[in-house]
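Please think about what follows:
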Amino acid sequence: MNIAEILHKQVEETPETPAILEMRRGASGRVSFAELELMASRGVSLLRQKGVQTGDTILLMLPLSTDFYIALIAIFRLGAVALILDPNANSDELDRACTLCRPKAIITTTSNLFWRFFSRAFRQVSLKFTIGFSLPTLISWQRSQTLDPDPKITEIDPETPAVVVSSLGLYEQLKFVELTHNYLTLQQKYLAEILGINPGEVDITLKPLLGLINLGLGVTSLVPKLKMKTPLDHQSKPIVEAIQNFQPTRIAASPSLLENLTQALVKKRALFNPVYKIFIWGTPVFPSLLNQVNQIAPQAEVIAIYGETAAIASLSRREIEASDVSQMQTGKGLLVGKPAPDIQLRIIPNQWGAPVAPYENQAEFEATCRLSPEPGEIVLQGDRFITRTLNELGEEPMNFRVGEQQWHRTGDAGYLDSQGRLWLLGPCQDCIQDKFGVIHPLTVECAVDYNREVQRVAFFSYRYQRTLVVEMADKSSSQRSLSSVLESLQWANVEALRVVEKIPMDQRYPRRVDRVALERILDEQD
C-alpha cells in the first residue's frame, strides 16, 4: 500500500473539488484534486529523468504551500522517502538530518539555497531542485510542468518509510522519526474518526501531515499567506485574513498560535465565524486558553488534543464540569479527556531514566500496572505509535515489549479516574521529591492558571526550595494579589515566591518555560 493510492482514490471520487486554496497565489490558488495529482505526476517525470529512484531520500524544505504538496505526493508516487525539514531549520538540524539520511536530492526555494550557501550538508546533496529563479547548476522544479505525466504509482511494502520528520526527544534531544506508508494510512483513518473530519469541509492547514490527511479525506486545505522567515506562532494576521476571506469550518493549531490569534481578534472585536470546530493541538492546554478561544468563537466547539504528533486523548470545553474545575484548582492535575479508542493506555510505576524490562505476557504486565487513580508514567500501545527513531547517539528508552507487542513510553506522568478519563501531571523528569513528599510542577501551574491576575507561572525547585515564579498580567499588581495566589496554593507547600517582569519561553516550544534562562534571571535578582 502506497499512501499515494489513497490520494488517487480521492481524485476518482471528487476530481473537481478544491484540494488546496492558497492565498499567496490569489485567483490561481484554487487547485482541484485532479489538478494536484496531474502536477505531482509530472513532478515524478522530472525526478525520474534526473535519476531519482524508488527508495532514495529527498530533502523537502518548502514552506507550507501547493508546491509543498505537489513535491510530497510526487515523492510518494515514486516510492522515495521525503525528509521534511522546516525551511527555517537551523544548521545543526540540517547537518544532522543529512548525515543520518543522506538525501540524494533536495527540493527547496532558490532563496533558501542561497541562504544555505555555506552549508556543507547542502553542498553534498547531488541534485538540487529549486522553486524560483534558476541558475545553470540548479534544476528548475517548475520545468516538471512541461513534461508528460507519469501515471504510475510505485507498489511498495506498507512498512516502507514514507517520510522522516524531526522532533525533540524526551531529553530535549533532537531526533528524527521514520513514518511508514502504513503508519500514515492508519493516522488518516483514526484521526478522521477522532477529529470528526468530513469530506467537503474547509480546514485551515498549518501542519504538513494534517494537510496530507485532509487530501486523503476530500477536505479542502486553506493555506494562509505566511511569511517564510517568521515563526508560525507569530503570524496571526495572515491567518485572520484567511478566515475572514474564505470562512473555513475548522482549524487545528498550537496553543501559542491560538493564544496570539485570540488576542488579535479581541483587538479587532472580531469573531471566528463560521468556524465550528477548533482543535488546540500540542503542549498541555490549560483551561484559560479554552475559555479565551471560546470568547472569540462562541458557536464553535473548542477541543484540546493531548499528544505532540498523535492524538492520544481529547477533551471538549463543553465536557468540563464544575467538579473537574475544583480538582484542577486543588492540585489534581490537568484533565485531558478520554483516550482515543484505537489505543491501549496504561499507567505504570514511574521509573523514568531507566529502561523498562520486557514482560513475557500481558498478564504479567497488567499485574504491575497502576489502578485508578494511582499515578505513574503513561504508556501506550497501538499501530499509530510504532515508529522508528533514527539517532546517531543511540535510541532513547521510549519502547518496551509485552510479549509480542511493542509499547510506547510517553515520558509523562498521569492517572486514570473512575470515568476512564486521563489526567496529566506533567513530564516525569520534572517531578520534585523533597521533605514535603512528591509534587508535579504542572499541577501547580494548572491551578494558578485559573487566577486571571497572573499572566504566566513557573513552579520548580530552585536552590532546594519549592519556588513559584509569576509574571503578573498587570505589572502594577499589589502585594494583596500575590498573597491571594499563595493562599490558594497551601496544598503545594510553596517556600519562595518570585515575581519577574517576563518569564522566558523556549524558542522551540513557545509555551514551555526556558528553565535555564529563568534561573539566570533569578540569580541576577539575588
Summary: The first helix runs from residue 3 to 13. The radius of gyration is 24 Å.
